[in-house]
Design a protein that fits this description.
single chain; about 300 residues; Serine Threonine Protein Phosphatase 5, Tetratricopeptide repeat; 2 domains
């Protein structure tokens, strides 16, 4: 039996943390059939228990990594959005590399979700001492890296954490609008200023919460403007389970080493398609546009 939201009674138990009634339903085939049903948003009780932080009931439900709703969001994503360290510590810390492979339908990784919600403590629990620098090259549907997302949302805490674990090249990555993280934060601040100055939707924009977020976006832009506290060999070796030199020798490819600014001599002799885009453009300059040819 389902209600108008497409939910059976188990959803209400998961939402309210009613362990006694949930356990009363357990034991027959109908229970296991109902347990796997989705509501009209494609959510199962695994999503609901994480969305509503019902830690007392989670042992009976045991959320998994491979259960997307209609938005492609997983139970882990809902826990990250709320920085629910208790739930994440219990279920999502033993398989960090599996978590790294997850994407929703906006092509967002766990790093994008954590950057949007400023969930730095939850992200640290998932990562542990696993190397994740290559994950910060991944882009969402708009070409934003996790650093772009943290900067545009003014989430200083996680922005600082991500920047401390990368090299300078990561702050020069551009999204699909041609903006680096610094430029994206500046543009977001400009748009927020315009919205605040306009008389439209004044009840939305002229609030303390909006002004607080606007101030944080400005702080993010200032942080990125002169940022220089990048990862060093000492910091890397102290944090991760593989020393930097071993990572560069045995794991990173030539392209990654060059991008990190730690390329070996032989890396610069590889074929052009293996070089970073900036290197390719130096070797093969862009042809002049038609209007430039006419001027010549």
């Amino acid at each position: 039996m389902k209600d108008r939201y497409g939910e059976n009674p188990l959803f209400e138990c998961a939402r309210n943390g009613n362990e006694a009634i949930f356990n009363w339903f357990m034991g027959d085939n109908e229970f296991y059939k109902a347990r796997g049903q989705q509501n009209y948003k494609g959510q199962t009780i695994e999503h609901i228990v994480c969305l509503h932080k019902q830690f007392e009931l989670v042992d009976e439900i045991r959320p998994r990594l491979d259960t997307p709703d209609y938005y492609g969001s997983l139970p882990l994503y809902y826990s990250l959005q709320q920085d629910d360290t208790k739930m994440i510590a219990k279920f999502f810390t033993d398989r960090p590399k599996e978590c790294f492979r997850l994407r929703n339908y906006k092509w967002e990784t766990i790093f994008h979700i954590a950057a949007k919600a400023n969930s730095v403590e939850s992200l640290k629990l998932i990562i542990g001492n696993t190397i994740f620098i290559d994950q910060l090259l991944k882009k969402d549907y708009a070409g934003n890296t996790a650093i772009h997302i943290a900067a545009k949302n003014g989430n200083i805490q996680i922005l600082s954490f991500l920047c401390q674990n990368v090299t300078k090249g990561f702050l020069e990555i551009k999204n699909d609008f041609g903006l680096t993280p610094f430029e994206a934060a500046k543009e977001k601040f400009r748009l927020m200023e315009e919205a605040l100055a306009s008389k439209d939707n004044e009840e939305v924009y002229n609030t303390d919460q909006y002004k607080f977020k606007m101030a944080n976006v400005e702080k993010a832009a200032k942080l990125l403007c002169k940022y220089d506290d990048f990862v060093t060999e000492e910091k890397w070796d102290a944090q991760f389970n593989l020393p930097l030199q071993m990572y560069l020798n045995d794991v990173a490819d030539a392209n990654m080493r060059i991008f990190m600014g730690k390329g070996f001599a032989q890396d610069y002799k590889v074929t052009d398609h293996r070089r970073p885009m900036t290197e390719v453009r130096k070797v093969f300059p862009q042809p002049p546009r038609p209007d430039e040819e006419a001027q010549v």
